[in-house]
Amino acid sequence: MTSPSVRRALVTMSAIALVAGSVTGLAQSAVAAPASSTATTQHHPSPPHHPGPPPTPPAAGDPDLGPNVLVFDPSMPTAEIQQRVDAVAARQADDEMGTGRYSLLFKPGTYGSAAQPLVFQVGYYTEVAGLGQSPSDVTINGSVNVFNRCLTADNCIALDNFWRSVSNLTITPTGGEGCRANTEFWAVSQASPMRRVDVTGTMTFMDYCTAGPQYASGGFLADSRATTITNGSQQQFLTRDSQIGSWSNGVWNQVFSGTIGAPAQSFPTPQPYTTLAATPASREKPYLWVDGAGTWQVFVPAARTASVGTTWANGPTPGRSIPLRDFAVVKPGDTAATINRQLDRGRDLLVTPGVYDVDRSIRVDRPGTIVLGMGIATLTAVHGSTPIVVGDARGVDIAGLMIDAGTTNSPALLQVGTAAHQGRAVGRNRGQDPVGLQDVFFRIGGPHVGKASKSLVVNSDDVVLDDIWAWRADHGAGVGWTSNTAANGVVVNGDDVTATGLFVEHYQEYNVIWNGERGRTVFFQNELPYDAPDQASWQHDGVDGWAAYKVADRVRTHELWGGGSYVFTNVNPALHARRGFEVPVRPGVRLHDVLTVNLGAGTLDHVVNDTGAAATTAAVGTPVSLVSGP
Question: Which residue of the set 184, 505, 509, 527 is catalytic?
Answer without folding.
Answer: 527
